[in-house]
Please model this.
Amino acid sequence: MKITTLLSAVTLLVASCGVFAGGQGTVLNEAWTAMETDSAVQVDDKWDYIRFLPVESAARKSVCFAFYPGGFISPYAYAPYTRALAEAGYISFILKVPVGFALLEINAADDAKKDAHAIAHCSAFVVGGHSVGGVAAVEYIVDNPEDGLVLLASYPQDTTSIATSNTIVSSIYGTNDCQTTLEDIDNSTDNLPSATTTYLEITGGNHPQFGWYTDSTTGECAATISQADQAAIFINETLRVLGLFE
Model:
């Protein structure tokens, strides 16, 4: 995922491809199951976002989470991730962005902050994103440095730096990722705050396994860790970051 000139290419990309949200990969059954309301989590599929709300009897936390999906990946592909956070008590949102490309609506997290349940229960926010969604999340943090940031296989644009902020950041990446490479992560460290950024490497993890959609990667780009094991790592790390804001 090369993002040096990404913003300048967005308009051309959308115009030339004519893509729509959810155009990359097929959403796995686990994600559709995670979209179902049950006794633990109420799921509300709204126009601007999908909200995962811990039931009233749960010990709701005072922190909310808003997530930017990866480029042209269905927002529903991340339902197991945000549902797991809701099961732990955190009101969580998957943001819906124009044509599935988060950089076209960098301030999408504001929609989640205006949600009635977020207003009533959350005194702090953490934003996150996968791949290009993480790029958008960094851009959002530029004007919202008080929020936390979780990057899944992502990093800032060359022209964007939050290095002088006190933002709490977790950068999570896989060793078998051919889209966001280890070199990409290493080269981006100067644009993140050195004192408050944690880097978590998932051995054997790859790019698609940060979501629940079909993975056609092969060879050195294929994961050598299971989807469930990779998910457990980045879910637990996200919970750690959320806990820092309670």
Observations:
- Helices lie at 6-17, 29-34, 79-87, 109-113, 116-121, 132-143, 182-187, 227-243.
